[in-house]
Amino acid sequence: MDHAAAEHLDPTIPAPSSAAVAEVNAWLASLAAEAGGAGGTGGRGGGGGAAAELSLGPDPTPRGVTYLRALASASRGRSRAAGIAAAGLRAQAAEYHAEAARLREALERAGLARDALPPPATAAARAVAAVANLLAIRDTEMSSFVVASADLSLRRAEVEEKRDKVHKESKALLDYTRKAINKLTELKKMLEKFKNDVEKQQVEQMTDWQTKLVMMDSKERQYILQVSNYKAMLNRVGYTPEINHGVLMEMAEHKKDLERKTKPIADTLRSYQDLPPDKALAALAIEDKKRQYAAAEKYLEDVLQSALTTTGL
Q: Which of 92, 91, 117 lies closest to 104 in space, CA to CA?
């Protein structure tokens, strides 16, 4: 089923009215008549066939009728606007023709007809006409030329101002571009320098790491040897895993307790180190010490007595 048949069978789309169909057919007939008249004027026939072809037919679609009716309304509006504009242009053309006839008649009476002018005057008139057309002047009044010249001068001033502005902007853009190029060159140099510095730093860092790795390898072997020696020493002294930190702390406390208890005995024994090993010699040494002690006491008494006597005097 085609689109037109679907529109006819759709109950939601209203059927076109006879007035709308007649309006569209009348518009199409007028278009065909205009086309036939243009063809007859141009020396071509077939206007009646064109009029017969431009019609809606016996069974038009609602959408087609609506579209063509809107198109006809727009076409009639544009045709009226074009007719009004054409009438105005025709009136202006008639005025220009009348003005031209009056000017031609006045020039002929003054003996200044175009055919009677010498070639230099004709060339000057054509130059004036060319300038008038260039300046869009509709008359030959001096004031019109002055106004047009002033307008042209203003436009020239505006163009020069715009040109100066564009020149300044171009110069500023050129300076900015030159600075950007210089900055880019500096950045490239800095990048190259950074690359070289990074390469040197990487080489130095790798050399340092290699040196440190060699040193750490040597330290590792040294520590492994020390650990082996410590293990052998612990095995020699009878160290077992049961001897932990707590046991060692208890042994240290016990050692301090023993040292505290044995210190008085050691001090007593140390005082006897000066005595001879024989008992008789020890007795003689004791007697000698006693005599020395008595002599020291007597000397002290004499000194005190002498000091008291001196104080009394």
A: 117
> Please, which residues have CB within 8 angstroms of residue 48's CB and are 6 or more apart in sequence?
36
Sequence-distant (6+) residues with CB within 8 A of 204 are none
Tens of pLDDT along 163-178?
Answer: 999 999 999 999 999 9
| Percent above pLDDT 90 for the chain | 15
| pLDDT tens, residue by residue, 52-77 | 456 676 677 888 888 888 888 888 88
